Batch of 4 targets.
Target 1
Amino acid sequence: MFQVQVDWLDEERSRARFSLPGREEWTAEHITALMRVLGEIREQMSPGVPEAPPPLPQLPPLHAPRYRTVLHEFSGGSLIQFRHPSLGWLQFLLPSVERRRMAEHFASQEAEWEHLHRPLSP
């Protein structure tokens, strides 16, 4: 859709300068494509995205995001898509072993919730 010119300002790729030649008008499609390109640039930068999530609370979580999950026909894993209001639909492919692990985590959380909020006996 458009070319982004990136100049790395140091060998570690911790700083970059980029330009968007010829772009004067922006549509939602342009912004989506730009976010994708910026994500690719970020992936090449250092330090990388941390392996562990940041401590809570960082930003308020999205409450009840729309999602879709389907069985991935080639790997047997689960394709999960979450709708982020500004980033669009984000896709994740979970191998079947991770799907089982997540199901166990959810079941454990459900049991913990029920234990904490069980009705008091008269």
Note: Strands lie at 5-8, 16-19, 67-71, 78-84, 88-94.
Target 2
Amino acid sequence: MSKRKQITNIEGVGWRELPRAGVIVEAGNAAKYNTGDWRSVKPVWKEDNCIHCLFCWVFCPDAAILTEDGKMTGIDFDHCKGCGICAKECPAKEKALVMVDDSASQ
């Protein structure tokens, strides 16, 4: 098994030197990158239907569910990629999150 050197700056590094899983040169930097413009659908929060169970917050892979004092307060669309996990996991009888076409609101 060959040893790979630790890469701290990817400038000038060829594809052969990169590890198979990718390179994270600065841990914890995801908040700097607004990735919400990738989505084609987005969740719409129906506040009246929300039971504030926070399942959406627990399951959201992008930390895009906004909360305050143990209650959902909205969605951070700068980071929401529109995966729909929040809407799928919502246990409310009348769903509090529904996915809609993102282009309809622009």
Note: The helical segments are 55-59, 85-89.
Target 3
Amino acid sequence: MKRLKQLLRSLAVILGGAWLVSCAGLWVFQEDILFPGRSVPVDAVYPGQVGARDVWVDRPDGARLHVLRMPAENAKGTVLYFHGNGAWNAYVGSVGALFGDMGYDVYSLDYRGYGKSRGARSEAAMLADALAYYDQIIDGEEAPIIVGRSLGTSFASYVAANRPVSKLIMLAPPSSIADVARRRFPVIPSALLRFPLSTDSWLAEVHAPITIIHGTQDNVVPIESGRLMKPLLKPGDRFIEVQGGGHNNLLRQGEVITVLTGELANP
């Protein structure tokens, strides 16, 4: 019995130590996990984006944000796009072409530390960046359509809750980063997260029409996380589940293109 108690005590110490190491690792490396995008020289040229233009948003703390403008001929409206955490502006040409073919000027913001954007990250700073992006690009013009993908839906919903928008379209949204973290790391306290990004709290403040599109086989942002936001939707809002749709192939699903074409038929 004494040996068993010693064994259990040793096991508890080992497990406790492993838990503390895991907590410390999450605290130290969470930016690398959540924001894996890399920096490139500010004069880098992104191939395959003929006609795209650089726009710069300068922030009071010295940060400088890169926005890629992909203009459409005879545009009927504007789309402000917030990409996922695994992309940056070098890889949004297909999104620009998709919405451009529907008749929209498309703008895409690179977050701090992504692509040509520079600046120290914090949740407060990045949320303020999203509003500054809107304010500089729209500048009193007709309310844009806001499109967010994955992590980008957090910034998209925050903007839609705080600025006039005509529509909010969310592709594979987490209800919050804290929720996704709890699903992946259930023993790690959510209080350690410096970027909880509570999309659900902002969604409840959005007055514009909302369309959420989520694949049932999403192994990055589980659809169960997206479903938590269904009770927050207004009459007329839509939550569309794409059967068999994954995370990275969502915009290659014919059903999704059909939905987006209908949503963007009018600004």
Note: The domain at 38-263 is CATH 3.40.50.1820 (Rossmann fold).
Target 4
Amino acid sequence: MAKLYFSTDQKEARRLSYLYQQNMLQRIYHGIYSDDLHSSTNLIRQKWMKITAYIVPKGILSFRTAVELKPIFYNEDNHIVFVTSSYVKTIILPGLIIKVSKGDSNSYVEQVMPDLARSNLPRLLLENLTVIRGANKGIKTIGAEGVETLLAKEMRHHGEVFSNLIRDEAKQMASDLGYEKEYDKLNHIISSMLSTNSNTNLKSAYAISVAKKIPYDRDRLNLFENLYLYLKRSFLKKRAYSFSNTSLKNLSFFESYFSNFIEGTEFAIDEAEDIIFSGKEVKNRHADSHDILANFRLTCDPSEIDITPDNSSEFLAILKRRHAYLMKERPEKQPGEFKNAINKSGNTIFVAPVDVTGTLCRAFELYKLLPEGLPKALFIHFVISEVHPFMDGNGRLSRIMMNAELFRAGLYKIIIPTVHRDNYLNGLRQASRDHYFTTYCKVLDQAQAYVETVNWADYGDARHKLEIDQADKTSDEGIPIFNRVLRNLKLSDFN
């Protein structure tokens, strides 16, 4: 693996110079060498902080670099770093430009590495409100909208009092460093964010949402936007089905059975039949029995499952009402109330409680733009799964909301049989972590296509079909046979 070498004293300088003369090292800059004799561009960009600290030893990272703490894309060949020191200079390295501006590099700073500092928060806010002209326009600063967004993040995490502390420190700093005009802009932004009447003067959508006390998770919204675009360019099949009371009841039984199995509420099918069809509670499992029964009652009630939201207020209300019914025998899970603490699954941390309402409402704006049926169903399912708005029951609720979309559109509902569970969860993980939606969408599309092959009008036929296809088995046991069934299905075209 390529390494950089720095001349730290005269002895080391002579040694490195000798190796360079013997063509064993490549010289990057005065006193900096690499053992990569071909191209050191990637290495330089990876080690840019150490290189900057060496070349500009009394400099500080400033302007946009102080915010992002990474080299900024300049053109296809170069990235750029902005530094403040006691002189003006442009340093050009392979793939990296260090742009040094003259200014105070001792005051209002904070360390990012033992030998490298950056402008502190109030100072970098002022720097990034500077009007830039010439070649670096649009590159050197994040601009007013970027400053608004950054302030909104700070306010969301630290509260409104913190914004006033920033304003107070920036006022003195502006006088000391000559940023009076920039301070006026900053003062106006903070005032707008703290006022319920003037936040329309803000440019950043995120800052406006925070000012209005409805913040959202910007990273999750970006994820939802990517899924929305993926669904818009895909060609999804419409698998129409006219439900009778009997077929809806039979399908809803297996929908509820498998949905609860995914979440660890495991019963034998015979036990689930006793709970749902005979009202027999499994001994010592009152809450578990209710979970599967409540899920069934929600999904087989045509007057309930036919309801889909027309606006964001209805969306929130439907979520809370269905969750309250689903979890009513688990009062410790706060049925019908959005979570008040962070929840996570493995390494995935879901949306923070303060951001739940805003994130759901912003996601709903995208939901409205999608066609009815499978596009809306896949989208709303993923949003609820990814936001995880409640303490528990989010997976089951996401599948209930998904199937309400399909039922309303006159399409087959989706069940996730036990054999398909691992593929389903893997698809969710890939979508969440990597913005890769193909597995997620294909797994649910396969599940709907499979549901289409079952005779739901006859309960015995339906159960027999699921069992001979080994849909009720674990992935280890049933996947070879189940996959052979899936290979014969006609699926949607995902791009």
Note: The longest helix spans residues 160-177.
